Amino acid sequence: TPLYSSAASDVYKRQVLATALFLLKNTSLQAQIVNIENKRSNLADTSGVFGYLSLGANFVKNTKSITTISGDIRIEFLHKKSRFLSLTNYNLIRANSDRFIDNGFSHLRYNYEINKRLEYEIFTQAQFNNQVRLKLRVLAGTGLRFQLYQAEKQKVYFGLSYMYEYDEIEIVSEVVSFFHDHRMSTYLSASIQPFLDNVTISNTTYYQPVLTNFSDVRLSSQTSLTFLLSKRLRFSTIFSITNDTRVPENVPATYYSVRNGIRWDF
């Protein structure tokens, strides 16, 4: 009967969403601000190529087919006072033709050390996120990164940049709006090792207003607890929260995620 069909459909959707959350527990489902600070290596006075690679794919077939794909790669090249950073991420969960999760980004950044406390940086990024109806975001910017404080087990950094941003957002269902913005991007990043050398607590908070309208702003904060299991293996728990004043209809202005994961560095 129609009643049974509707109930079965609701149960199926809940099952798919539960599967999605389980399979993608290691990813940020709705992030619009990419936290670069937790992607930087802590290496200094060295040269070479460093990074990590994470790939995953699952396929489940019963009454419906569920496909899960995830990938994350970071490549960092250090040479004297220069640092090149490349980040790419993609996540997909599809049940038949329905895409419950579909997002990705690519980020390139160059840093030059002016002195021990000051760096110049330039960056560009492209991303999309169908869950918040962000069809495309392309940005480019430049600015400075300051080391405010450093001790044996504590570090505090402040970043101040200008960036130009182009957005394609489905503000109203099936109607895409285009935005060209000049934004200020600031962040404050801190990390400490309060207990043991293999335990680190860190936080990064971003503030990104439109320069011509400071009430149009994105705020994002990410806090992580990381356990170093070996020289190259680490476990982390990450809590993220974001608020965006420019959101499509039926999309919450504030959203958050909790992620757990294991990472292997090379």
Q: What would you say this structure looks like, in words?
A:
The structure is a single chain. By secondary structure, the protein is mainly beta. The chain has one helix at 2-23, and strands at residues 48-61, 65-79, 82-95, 98-115, 118-129, 134-150, 154-172, 175-192, 199-210, 213-228, 233-244, 254-264. It has a twelve-stranded antiparallel beta sheet, with helices on one face. β10 (213-228) and β11 (233-244) form a beta hairpin. The N and C termini lie far apart (56 Å).
Give a brief description.
With 266 residues, the protein is mainly β. The chain has one helix and twelve strands, in the order αββββββββββββ.
Number of strand elements: 12
Instruction: Please tell me the overall pLDDT.
Output: 83
- What is the H/E order? HEEEEEEEEEEEE
Adjacency order of strands in the biggest sheet: 1-2-3-4-5-6-7-8-9-10-11-12
Low-confidence segments, ≥5 residues, pLDDT <50?
1-6, 21-30
Q: How far do the termini sit from each other?
A: 56 Å
Structural class category? mainly beta
Tell me the strand percentage band: over 45%
What is the CA-atom radius of gyration, in angstroms? 20 Å
Helical coverage, percent range: under 10%
- Largest sheet entry: 12 strands, antiparallel
- How many DSSP H or I helices? 1
Question: Can you tell me the overall shape?
Answer: globular
